[in-house]
Amino acid sequence: MPSRSSVRAVAASLAASALAVSLPAAAAHATGPTPSAGSARAVTAEVDLDVSLLDKAVHIPVEATLNKVQTPAQRDASMLTAAVDGVDRGRPVTLVKADVGRSVTRVDEHGTFASVTLADADLHAPGLPATTLLGLQALSAEATCPVDGQPSAKVTSPLKLTVLGRPVTVGLNSPSRVTVPAVGTVEVEFSKKTVTSATAAASALEVSVDVNPLNLNVARVTGRVTVASVSCEKPGPSPVVQTSKAAQKPTAADLQGPAEQAGALAATGSSGTGFMAGGAVTLLVTGGAVVWASRRRRGRARHR
Questions:
Q1: What does the radius of gyration of the chain's CA atoms come to, in whole angstroms?
Q2: 186, 163 contact by CB (below 8 A)
Q3: Which of 18, 12, 21 is nearest to 290 (CA)?
Q4: Nearest Cα residue to 213 out of 221, 205, 202
Q5: Distance of alpha carbon 255 from alpha carbon 275, whole angstroms
Q6: pLDDT in tens, 30-45
Q7: pTM over 0.85
Q8: Can you say how many angstroms the Cα of residue 97 is from the centroid of all Cα atoms in its chain?
Q9: What does the DSSP assignment read for 164-189?
């Protein structure tokens, strides 16, 4: 038959178990931010045109890029051709021809960088093989995103620029528009730049094309050509990642009696919901043990 001391031991053990159950199993914490390397992008020329043909009611998209690179890389090329179905009996169409076409991107401990250099370049449209859509002598664009400092973008204006064979002076505040009768219209916008606290981007020339060559089975060519496009993003902290850790061992405050914990909760203004749930389980188990011990004592007294 269990003694009074063993009953107390069982009750204390069950109370401690109930208190442990009422404690949280795990707690979330945030790890420190880890730095990201940043990024950079550079493209010598991007062509996005829609070609309409004379003998068919169809539109053929022409999308191509010259020297597209992303961090870290470098590429040199001077020719961009594309095969356009139905144009000049399927022969490749020369869209861009240049003496120098260079795209460079870099990432290091100082930050990120992108640049494009283009020299003695001619841009052509399908259906206009003998007419230079855009001609330029020298052009460059740069985007710099330092680790410590403000990002920046810089564009140098072309030394010489022609549109549909005509010399043009690019405007700094508004696009330059050239219209040639029986050929079409070309609009050129110089030096588009966007700079934020963490990024920089620039394009040296944005060319809007709307021409009707009526040559080589081409009825109309519309779209855009972007020359010397660069962008960068500076290195910086990445988003905080949430992880979890094991629950801590109960402290002295956790092991206080009901009266002491109630007083502590009242003093701090904390919610007592978790404590009340754990305390209720503890009191229930302890009370059951006491009642069981009392009944055992009465039974022994009657038999004596």
A1: 39
A2: yes
A3: 12
A4: 221
A5: 11
A6: 445 555 678 999 999 9
A7: no
A8: 34
A9: TTEE-PPPSSS-EEEEETTTEEEEEE
